[in-house]
């Protein structure tokens, strides 16, 4: 799924809510407590802005575990920024959420 195909889902509230829930679940499986602010309307850019500082924090403490998390999320290697994203957590956050959104979109299209 390319960026153009994915773009419409980045503005669909139901898909964004499902993406946030999927991301929280995947992070929790690795012991990373992550909860997006559910009081605000879902927004892809805001979710990226919420995730990036958490990633920066986790990279400082346990950078090696980030590699396992990215594998679990199924983030393709070519999408992982240099240094497993710990050098550019904003880009890493965007790529993680993009992958999570793709998973949600594919699941909804193939399960229904």
Quick gist of this model?
By secondary structure, the protein is an all-alpha fold. About 65% of the residues lie in helices and about 0% in strands. The radius of gyration is 13 Å and the shape is globular.
What does this molecule look like?
The chain has one domain. It is globular and about 40 Å long. Helix content is 67%, strand content 0%. It is mostly helical.
Shape: globular
The SS-based structural class is mainly alpha
* Proportion of helical residues: 55-70%
Would you count the extended β strands for me?
0
- What can be said about the biggest beta sheet? none
How much strand content do the residues show? under 5%
- Element pattern in H and E: HHHH
Poorly predicted runs of 5 or more residues: none
Terminal Cα separation, in Å? Answer: 18 Å
C-alpha Rg (nearest Å) = 13 Å
Q: What's the domain count?
A: 1
Average per-residue pLDDT, rounded, comes to 91
Number of helices: 4
Features:
mainly alpha
Element layout with pairings:
Blueprint: H1 3-7, H2 13-29, H3 44-73, H4 89-111
């Amino acid at each position: 799924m390319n960026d153009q195909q994915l773009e419409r889902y980045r503005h669909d509230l139901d898909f964004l809510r499902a993406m946030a829930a999927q991301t929280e679940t995947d992070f929790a499986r690795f012991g990373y407590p992550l909860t997006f602010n559910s009081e605000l309307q879902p927004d892809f850019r805001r979710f990226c802005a919420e995730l990036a500082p958490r990633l920066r924090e986790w990279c400082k403490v346990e950078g090696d575990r980030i590699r396992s998390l990215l594998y679990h999320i199924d983030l393709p290697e070519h999408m992982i920024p240099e240094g497993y994203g710990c050098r550019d957590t904003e880009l890493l956050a965007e790529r993680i959420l993009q992958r999570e959104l793709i998973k949600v979109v594919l699941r909804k299209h193939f399960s229904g």
